[in-house]
Structures are given as structure tokens and as C-alpha cells.
Queue: 3 jobs
Job 1
Amino acid sequence: MKISESIFFFFLLVAFVSCKRNDVLQTTPVPREETKKSVRVEEKKTAVVESKNEQEDFNSFLKIFSNDSLFQRDRIHFPLKVKINNDDFELVDYLITKEEYRNINLDVQPQSMDYKQVIHLKEEEAVIQQRGINNGIYIDYFFKRKNGKWQLSTWIDVST
């Protein structure tokens, strides 16, 4: 009888500890930093386009695109096909995966640039041209508007 009581208390203890663990797992809050990040990204997405029928403003989009890495990756369809000069100065197609992609900042202040940047904006397309000042930079970034939202579609880098 003593053995069966010990076994009974052992199972009772295991059941009690298991119930407590489930309660802890179910009530563990999401860290505040992660919550802030997701809310901040959502706020920025909605700040650009208020309704589905509204067309996104390119300048507002560009500012967020350049300063928010999560937003930037969300506005690119991967793998991204780009054209870049190789070592022999031949224009070659490259596919960039989401893992290989490095963020770009196209919202740089003129006094800190060693190149000029010009934006050519049409209704559904935009091109940002970067032309170096005595340094060989020559890049065109192409954007398209899809369903009212701007996306980076490709770029051509013929820099030397």
C-alpha cells in the first residue's frame, strides 16, 4: 500500500506541474519591442495609403522605403532581377534573393552625396537616376505602381 500511495502522489505531482507549465506558456506576453516593431511597420504602411482606392504618393513612399528595412523588403518581389556590370564591363543579369538583398537608401541629402540624383516620375512608373561626380557611379532604379502601391521592380548599374 505504501508503494501505491507513493505512485499516486508522484502522478499527482506530475499532473500539477504539467498544468502549471501550460498556464505559463499560455500567458507569456509578447516582448514589447516586437510589438512596437510590428505596430510601427503597420502605421507606416497605412500612412502611405489610407484606402485601397487611393494612389500612393511616390515621395512619401520613397522616404519610408529608404528608412525602414522591413517596409523596403515588403515592397520588392523576390527574387529581384537586376543588371550589373561585371569585371569585364559587360551588363549581366543577376537574381537577388531576399536573403542576399542589402537595403538601399535613396533618400540621401544632397550635401552628403558624391553623385547627383534625379527622379523621373510618371503616373505608374518612376525612375531614380544616380550619376556620379567624377567617380563612375551610373545607376537607374525602376519603380512601378501596382494596385496603388509603389514597388522597386529592378535596377541597372553600369557604374565603372
Note: Confidence is low (pLDDT under 50) at residues 8-39.
Job 2
Amino acid sequence: MRRVRPGVAASRGALTSVAAGDTYEEPEDMPRLWHVTLSASGPEIPLKDLRQALERLAHDHPFLLTSRYAGDHAEIRYWEEARDLHDAAAVALRLWGEHRQSAGLPPWEIVGLEVIDRETYHQRVAEGYGPLPATPVGVHPF
């Protein structure tokens, strides 16, 4: 293995080695996976229009796992990669507004947001009280 002087690796982007017996620690600012559930609601709109808007959003952003909808509310569930909960929540809170025009989403208010880490998501599912895995994937009525 090649040894790199301290400070040189960061400036050149080179790889560093770990001496025998040392342990590797994951940097704290590495991205993590967060399960996001975003809920929006507002005045009732035709179901066909809402379904088409949610399908356009899913097409533009294939990271969306599932969307459920009714005439006056919708729920979007997906995985977000972010450094921490604050970053994941900030992205989620911008999602609806930033894609209203491109996807044709209604001008609804965000009324709910849950962001949990991957471990918490899997723990809830295993204990039977968390959101079930998003199956079937896609856009579906409530």
C-alpha cells in the first residue's frame, strides 16, 4: 500500500492507507439513506389530472417509490440520500413546489413530512408498526 503524507491526500484527491492494526472509521459527513413520506392537500381536483401529474413526477424522478392519492390529498414515499436529516427534510419540503410546473401538480400545501433513517424504517417494519414497504410501486388511489 502506498502511504501519503498528512494533508497531501486531501489536496490531491489521492487515496490514503490505513496502517496495520488501525481501524477504519466512516467519515461522519457521508450520505445516508432516509425514508421520506411527504403529504400534501388542498382543494379537490379531478382524479385523472392528479394521477397524470403524479405519474409525470415519478417519470421525471424515478427515485419515487410510490404515490397514493385522492381528489384532495396525496402522499409520496421515497428514499433520499443525504448527509443528515436536515438535508433530507429540506429536499423533501422543496419537492412539491419545485415540480408543480413541470409535473402539473396542484397548488396544494404540504401538510405532513416524516423523515426517518434506514435503520429506523427497517426496525418499524420488522416490529409490524411502521409503514409497509412500498408495494406495489407506482401511483395508486388511496
Note: Residues 50 and 123 are 33 Å apart (CA to CA).
Job 3
Amino acid sequence: MRVEAILYLKAQPLTLAELAALAGTAPETVELALIELLNDYAHRQTALEIVQIDNRYSLQLKSAFQELVQSLVPVELGVGAQRTLALIAFRGSIRQSEVIELRGSSAYQHIQELLTLGLIQRRRDSQSRSYILQVTERFHQYFQVDQLPTTEGDRGGDSRTH
């Protein structure tokens, strides 16, 4: 149980030697404990599993729960990606080429990250060789906004600020 607790608390892959040092026991004892844990987790109905990758062991959530993780764990976005997302959200829909022009070439990476996270979507622009970018329903759910204010031109001259 000590090895299981260490795997849980460290929350990162550990070698047999690292586990033994943290447990204060011999590597052979840790190896036997790991075999027992691997067998135990393989035969019980649980959301967790012990995984071995490149001689490192970790306790992790089974891959079947990744969608749940994405819906519950906050998205970590860097400042650049946040600014790119804010631009796309503010504009409602915007050509990718325009985002690159306004945000610089690093916006390509931001856009890919935002697409992967499901916060934006893109479609081919029939008027140019670029894509049209816009926020998704996931964006609205994550940031808990029902509707974003429209830009000045979309309000028909209404000069209210939001």
C-alpha cells in the first residue's frame, strides 16, 4: 500500500529505484509490490490503473475517462493563446490570415492549441485561401458565457459599449 500511496502522491512516473528510495525499502520489495498492484488494478472495477512506460511506473486515470477530465479540469492557456482566443471571440468570426497578421506567426501554434482543446473551430473561407475561425459551444460552456457582444459593425451603428 505504501508504493500505491507514493505513486498517488507523486503524480508522475517513477523508476523502481526512485520508488524504493521514497518507500525506504529494497527495489526487490517494491518490484513485488508493483506486481501485486498491477494484478490488483487489472482485476477490479476502478477508474485508475498502474502503468509502466520505459521502466517508470505511474498511477493514472484510465484513458476511457479523458473526456471527463477535459470537461472538469481547467484548461491551462498561455498568455499568447489567451490573447489569440480573445481576438477570435471578440470578432465572432475572423479569417485565420487576419489573426496571423494581427497576432504574429506564433498565432499558428495558438490556433492549433485552441483547436485541439475544442475552444475554436475553423472552416474553409469560400472568399479566400484562408480559414474562418470562431469560438465553439465548448468555449461558451467553459467560460460560462451565453452570448458574446457583437462588434460595432454588426450592431447596425449601435454605439453602446460592453
Note: The chain has a mean pLDDT of 83.
